[in-house]
Specification:
14 helices, 321 residues, mainly alpha
Length: 321
């Protein structure tokens, strides 16, 4: 999410303790220290439950859902968000309900169940519109953008991310800005708008680095590397993939490690094929000296190879950056 815990610190010690635990959990969550964050959120939940503080307990469930989602523990994330949704619905707390619906949309998106994800995001957006909640709506627009991106509806995805970015920039939400920029970079990359993609990834990476979000920073490095790979700038691509891999290893993000390693393999494969193919073309051309037609055919094949290497390097994919 792009918001910090909102529980109010009241006079009684246990309520104050629950709110402070939530804030401590958020700090660790924002630094990708999910195990420690979960411990704080669970302690806060125990305190809120003991005090029969339903609102704080629901907020704890929302944050536990975010942690589980980041850890790819989708069933647990779904359960936490669903419990929070039920509580917020009974309390009539629309702000908390929006976050639960947004979280459930994120879970279904992660499971590639895009139609179901869209339903949750649209339900959340409807509440935001009714409440005139710009910041909440911007968060949901990022989710809808991610759905459209996965559905390869790139223009729609770009529109959602642009709208979300404008709001996040206006209200001063750096994490929301970075997420919108990362989405924009992905949409531009998928449409071969490489300069725009590079600019968006670079801006997002700078923000992630400033706020200490290591996973976000690593993902944008993967995005920059993917652009460089498309442009046959192999040394630069390899360097960014290695930087991303180091970060993912440091925070123990196995999926991120796999994506970065796949990127490195793609660089090696593309560079090897490029060098080998040009050697073959050169040899073929030397055998066709004096044969103008054959030489023209060889040069045409060489040009075709470079075009294909630039636009579709082996092992590359625009589906996930």
């Amino acid at each position: 999410p792009s918001v910090i815990p909102t529980s109010e610190i009241r006079s009684d010690v246990k309520a104050r303790s629950a709110a402070l635990l939530l804030t401590s959990g958020y700090v660790h969550y924002s630094q990708d220290d999910y195990e420690t964050a979960a411990a704080f959120f669970n302690d806060a939940l125990a305190n809120a439950t003991a005090e029969s503080d339903a609102s704080s307990a629901a907020e704890c469930q929302n944050w536990l859902g975010e942690v589980y989602l980041a850890q790819k523990r989708h069933d647990e994330a779904k359960r936490s968000f669903s419990e929070a949704r039920s509580t917020y619905t009974s309390l009539g707390n629309d702000e908390g309900l929006v976050r639960s619906l947004d979280g459930l949309g994120g879970v279904y998106h992660a499971q590639h169940r895009y139609d179901e994800a869209e339903k949750f995001f649209l339900e959340a957006e409807k509440i935001c519109v009714r409440r005139d909640d710009e910041a909440g709506r911007a968060q949901v627009l990022n989710g809808l953008g991610a759905v459209r991106l996965a559905q390869r509806r790139y223009n729609d995805a770009r529109n959602y991310f642009v709208r979300a970015l404008a709001v996040h920039s206006r209200v001063g939400n750096p994490l929301g800005q970075a997420n919108s920029l990362n989405g924009l970079g992905s949409a531009d990359y998928a449409q071969c708008r490489y300069e725009g993609a590079m600019e968006s990834f670079a801006k997002a990476g700078s923000i992630y680095g400033r706020i200490g979000n290591a996973v976000g920073r690593a993902n944008t490095l993967n995005g920059v590397a993917a652009v460089l790979l498309k442009q046959r700038r192999y040394s630069g691509a390899r360097e960014r993939y290695r930087q991303a891999l180091d970060i993912h290893k440091r925070v123990d993000n196995h999926l991120g490690q796999a994506n970065s390693q796949n990127g490195l393999d793609s660089v090696d494969h593309a560079q090897y094929r490029c060098e080998g193919a040009m050697e073959s073309f050169a040899e073929a051309e030397s055998r066709r000296i004096g044969n103008a037609v054959g030489r023209a055919a060889t040069l045409t094949l060489a040009g075709t190879f470079f075009f294909l290497t630039m636009c579709n390097p082996p092992g590359s994919s625009s589906a996930e950056l």
